[in-house]
Amino acid sequence: MSDTVLDRLVECLAKASAFDPNVQEAPVALLWPDEEARWQSVIGRIAGRVPLVSLGAFEPAQQRGPAYWVRCVVAGTIDAGLADGRPVIYLPGVPQGAVRAVETCAPELAPIAELQYRSRWFANPKGRDWTVRALLADAEHGLGLMVADNAQTNAALLLALDKLLDVPINRLKNQVLDADYCNQLVNPDPPSLLLGWLDDPAGYRSRLPRAQWVAFVQQCKADYGFDPELDGEIAAARRLAARDGNWDLVWKRFAEMPQGYRGVPEQLRKARPLEFHVDNPPAWPQDNENDEDHLRSRLADCAILNPEGARKEIARLNDEHARRRTTVWAGLGQAPLAFALEQLVALAELTAQPLAANDLISLASDYTDRGWRVDDTFLRALGAAPARADRAAVAAAGTVLYRAWADSAARAMQTIIGPMANAYNYEATGPASTAPGVVSVFVDGFRLDIAHRVQDRLVTAGLAVECATGLAALPTVTATAKAALAPVGRDALTAGPGLQSRNTATGTAASIAVLRSLMGDNGVQVLGSTEVGDPTGSAWAEAGELDRRGHDVGSRLVDYLDEEVDRIVGRVRELLDAGWLRVDVLTDHGWLLMPGGLEKVELPAATTEVKKGRCARVKDGAVVEVPTVPWFWDRDVRIAVAPGLTCFEAGKEYEHGGVSPQECIVPRLTVTASAAMTATGGPEIRKVTWLGLLCRIELSGAGHGVVADLRGLAADPNTSIAAKAKETSAPGRVSLAVPDEDLEGQRAHLVLVGPDGEILADRDVIVGRNR
Questions:
Q1: Is the pLDDT of residue 334 over 90?
Q2: Using an 8 Å Cβ cutoff, are 686 and 733 in contact?
Q3: Which segments within 462-500 are labelled E, that is strand?
Q4: Under a CB-based contact definition with an 8 Å cutoff, are residues 562 and 539 in contact?
């Protein structure tokens, strides 16, 4: 059984009394000041768990008395019937400061004023009394719960405190304690009582007062045709799954917040009839698991299909499994393959059309407008299925579609770029800006699809972002292409060893230290990872570890993308908050990612001076049978390029250095503070998940009075399509329902609105679609 709030509160009192006997005298008591008597309604319950006396009118049977009596209890000259242990002295109506100054202490408090020198205080570290909200929310000294910070919640907490003490802590880990939650505790309705009992039958009954249990039994008999004492939880779970009559409302309540009733799925599992075919299959966890197993097997079988066959099979599977994205099991995270399938459907549609390949302009334009979505969708499909077996199945189906499309795009680009580069008409993106007020943030391996994720987050935060694209220096490896971006003096770098440039003046290879030194010589500040520099000048900073992680973990990079995006977004906002007029986010190259590895192609070692996964420096006079391009730093040096989506090394799931849209077409974000910019820590929409027509939103930084809504026009509340706009209450999660089924597939704005109606965050969404 999980600890309850009362259990943790008792632990907080014990922690506050703790001392080190090696260096401290044992305190004689723990003084608990409570000027507004917020805790008085539950002191009797706490006193049942710890030795506690209260200051007040003399009632020894209630362990309460005046200051002289309290002092005698502490001294042991009066037996108050306390359990063994250091006594807690509860001081209702008494602030901590009332006994601090002994000389001016009120006469009725004077007898206990001296105790403060031999006791500990149970109070906020800032010297304030513990409010109910503060103690519940404090992570270090309290319970570390998520509690809304508003007057309504503070008042509701006092009313619900007695019932809140009985709530298991594990049920509150992902629950924001707000006024609605507290009021439901004070006035529990039959559906919530039923679900609470089903979640933990024995424990729930033991915690319920006898009178409330009797009433609950009567309600069940009258409203649900069921006796919890005689019929038991298995019969209740079977009725819940059937959803007949009033049970339908109970199921809907469960479906709205299944995470709050983690024990109910196990009851449903035990209650499922033994028949192979049962009524209402979506209600049973076994049926969902069987569907996931079936889908996993069918996706894995796609590996033997050609792309067109895979498209047809994925469409057929989606017809069969799309409904599961609206079930309870989807809400509990137990239908990952159903969500991965949604991305595979999008991937099948996107890869049906190859990139335009008439010339470099048309290819780059098509990739910039549309092609990057193929890469993004493939990554999202893999990321939706974190379990090893699930990901392998998704990769099997997705790779059939993605490999053919990406290989065709790479070969088309190589056909176009080869002659251009050999004719010296390939123009790489220029170096970073040195304009005053501009800081360039370099992100190694900042591919275009990842740039769009960062752009979405920054725009949602109220920033103005422009995304331009250019071409990476060849070959697309850091040793070559990063130096090409460095804001150093003209002709400061020239061709060096291997694939590196070198300092023209000293001949030293252009290591990180050399590049930083040259940037400094050019008047550019080089910022450390936590430095913000002088915004009146120009600067170079670096953020993220995309490329390092890609090389380290291969296709598992998808598991770290959200974290990497967070880091880049955070660094950009930090620099803008420090006063920089503009932040440019730029990169040296993109990359290819292929679960299972890129196909290997042979390149004799005798023909190369340096060989990487997707490129190699060819020895003078050597003949190779793969495409070649001139080196950025010396046009007389030839660079061999792996054809299509192949690789010169085996087993590479993540690689770059070659010629493909993913590697060569690089983004450059220009970020400035718009008029609607929010400060760092302001409200931000972090993740949106659609479960049918229910939109679940994960957000951060939302304070009191911020409302979430779905609208046709972002600034017009009259265009709301949500059943009800909801106050976010606190950082965490909020759900919005769209009642009109005809709106599925329509575009809308998910907005966070401030108390004055200002749009604090705005994200484009498609109703019912995860993308």
A1: yes
A2: no
A3: 463-471, 493-495
A4: no
Strand positions, DSSP E, 77-149: 88-92, 120-121, 146-147
pTM above 0.70, yes or no: yes
Q: What is the pLDDT of residues 540-581, one digit of tens each?
A: 999 999 999 999 999 999 999 999 999 999 999 999 999 999
Separation of alpha carbons 573 and 675, rounded Å: 15
Judge if 72 and 201 occupy the same domain: no
DSSP 317-385: HHHHHGGGGGSHHHHTT--HHHHHHHHHHHHHHHHTSPPP-SSHHHHHHHIIIIIHHHHHHHHHHHHT-
Residue with tokens 């070959």: 475
- Give the residues across from 89 on adjacent strands: 31, 53
For the chain, the domain total comes to 5
Boundary of a domain, candidates 222, 251, 281: 281
Digit-coded pLDDT (tens) for 233-271: 999 999 999 999 999 999 999 998 898 899 999 999 999
Contact 631, 639 (CB under 8 A): yes
Burial (CB count <10 Å: 0-12, 13-18, 19+), residue 525:
middle
3-state SS class at 684? strand
Cα 63 from chain centroid (whole Å): 48
Residues 153 and 262 in one domain: no
Can you give the residue range of the structural domain that contains 457? 438-591+659-673
Q: Do both 268 and 291 map to the same domain?
A: no
DSSP 721: -
Q: Answer yes or no: do 9 and 95 share one domain.
A: yes
Residue 399 · residue 598 · CB < 8 Å: no
Are 720 and 667 contained in the same domain?
Answer: no
Residue in 102, 252, 70, 176 with CA at minimum distance from that of residue 692: 252
Per 3-state DSSP, the chain is made up of helix, strand and coil in percentages (nearest 5) of 45, 20, 40
Cβ 687 vs Cβ 695: under 8 Å = no
